[in-house]
Design brief:
This protein is mainly alpha-helical. It has helices at about 1-10, 20-40, 45-70, 80-90, 95-110, 115-120, 125-150.
Length: about 150
């Protein structure tokens, strides 16, 4: 099970890439689901929702299990960035400019942690690892949904 958690928590290995592993993890998350826009465009939000729920659960449990070995919220854990990125993409048009905007906004909220995001890290353990990125994804999505209303 530890091998499974290492693979999943590291975003299929992207968390081990040098320089800004969270950025690599968020980019990998978008690239992983981009083919779904072609294969099953009408089901994208349903599929994203399923991925979010599954990876959130794996992230919480896996982070709890790996804390002893990796420490609290280590840089190689990027499953949280993947979940946050997928939340940022929910309900957006399947066009690359919107996806790029989602990526940039999500990374902004994830890195700078404004508006209560930082306080969620203090929860600790698996939920603390995951929830700050969930909220960063929600904020990015809200900004983009408001922008969608304008266009």
């Amino acid at each position: 099970m530890r091998r499974f958690y290492k693979l999943m928590l590291s975003g299929f290995g992207t968390g081990w890439l040098p320089l800004a592993p969270g950025t690599w993890g968020a980019a990998a998350a978008a690239l992983l689901v981009w083919p779904l826009t072609i294969w099953t465009p009408g089901l994208l939000n349903l599929e994203l929702s399923g991925l979010i729920i599954a990876f959130l659960w794996i992230g919480v449990l896996g982070s709890d299990q790996m804390t002893a070995e990796w420490g609290e919220d280590p840089s190689q854990t990027v499953i949280d960035e993947m979940v946050g990125m997928w939340i940022a993409l929910l309900g957006l048009p399947m066009l690359w400019p919107w996806w790029l905007a989602a990526f940039l906004l999500f990374r902004f909220f994830d890195i700078f942690k404004p508006l209560g995001i930082r306080s969620l890290e203090k929860i600790g353990r698996g939920w603390g690892v995951m929830l700050d990125d969930v909220l960063a994804g929600v904020y990015a999505n809200v900004v983009l949904q408001v922008a969608l209303l304008q266009f």
